[in-house]
Design goal:
Blueprint: H1 21-31, H2 40-44, H3 51-62, H4 82-99, H5 106-111, H6 124-130, H7 134-148, H8 153-156, H9 164-177, H10 187-197, H11 213-227, H12 232-260, H13 264-295, H14 300-326
Helix pairs in contact: 1-3, 3-4, 3-11, 6-12, 7-10, 9-13, 10-13, 11-14, 12-13, 12-14
Length: 335
């Protein structure tokens, strides 16, 4: 994992190498607008957590962010691509609905998150704090960069779908995430600084090729929830889950950065989240969730689903990372 640059510029990356027939067919269609993408039926038979589906979905979603250097900007909402994207989303969302508890209340979903488990065997943050080596921290940062270099962007889609207390609370938190008016304090920039301390390449999307499906799924679910107004409750649940669990995890990761000598910017990123997200947790629970459910109480199961789906996907990623690291192997995709 060799760094090539520390340029955090908006320059778009190129489409990555495919990982199966879905992504290969999609990338061929992106390269040649006259070529049809794979049929929706092909997505319906794909592994909902697999490499091929999640790379294809990730590339389609990235058209809504910074795009790719070799894909025309007007492909973002190309009607020819929408049936495939819809089929990929339905396959992924169907698996999530089947694999997490249904019909839970927010008290049930978040009650479990507010108490830190004493069993740390499946905790990546605990592993890195006490046992992690610098190469493992660098791998963790490389994979997390797929989200953190656009931190808070997927959640901003929910703002026009909220009102009153929920909207005010969401905007207050997002204002902090985007640096409170100071470009150097935007959390995406703070993460780029962390990566520079670790000797990583800070270019947006640079580590996409190295990211396995469990890492892509964690990022894809944010955009899935964000792009669909019908899933606004799930996006609020996802966002709340991230904020509720961030502070204790960030405390452990800040300690890991200190212990391994990762650097001041690396430590600062997580130290910043310890304080900020402790405040955000209260705002998101009382104002964002409270306000949303006061306006639309029928969305409570969706909010709980968003939180539960987030935990499910994070647990899958944690299992992938810890299994590899405990075997002394890299958790990154090789080639």
């Amino acid at each position: 994992m060799t760094a090539t640059t520390t340029d955090h510029s908006p320059a778009a990356a190129s489409v990555p190498a495919p990982r199966g027939p879905l992504s290969a067919g999609l990338f061929a269609a992106l390269a040649s607008p006259g070529q049809a993408p794979p049929e929706a039926g092909e997505a319906a038979a794909a592994d909902p957590y697999g490499e091929d589906l999640h790379l294809a979905l990730h590339v389609l979603y990235e058209l809504h962010y910074r795009g790719f250097a070799d894909v025309a900007e007007d492909r973002e909402w190309d009607p020819a691509l929408m049936p495939l994207r819809r089929a990929l989303e339905e396959r992924f969302l169907g698996a999530l609905r089947a694999d997490v508890p249904a019909g839970r209340t927010t008290d049930e979903a978040f009650g479990e998150l507010l108490v830190e488990s004493t069993d740390h065997g499946d905790s990546v943050a605990h592993h890195l704090e006490h046992h992690g080596e610098l190469w493992q921290i660098r791998e963790y940062a490389a994979l997390r960069s797929l989200y953190h270099l656009k931190e808070a962007d997927p959640h901003a889609w929910v703002i026009p779908r909220l009102r009153g207390r929920a909207k005010a609370g969401m905007v207050a938190i997002e204002y902090d995430e985007f640096g409170a008016g100071r470009a150097e304090n935007i959390h995406a920039q703070l993460f780029a600084d962390l990566m520079a301390d670790l000797g990583l390449d800070t270019r947006y999307g640079h580590y996409l090729e190295a990211a396995p499906a469990p890492a892509l799924a964690v990022v894809n679910v944010m955009t899935l929830f964000g792009l669909h107004r019908a899933l606004r409750g799930a996006l609020v649940g996802h966002f709340a889950c991230v904020e509720v669990t961030s502070s204790p995890g960030s405390r452990r990761l800040a300690a890991a950065m200190r212990r391994t000598g990762a650097g001041p910017a690396a430590e600062r990123f997580y130290a910043e989240h310890v304080e900020a997200d402790a405040v955000h947790e209260q705002v998101v629970r009382r104002e964002v969730i409270g306000g949303l459910l006061a306006d639309e109480p029928h969305l409570e199961p969706d909010v709980a689903f968003g939180a539960d789906a987030t935990v499910h996907l994070e647990n899958r990623l944690a299992s992938h990372l810890l299994e590899a690291w405990r075997d002394g192997r890299s958790a990154l995709r090789q080639g």
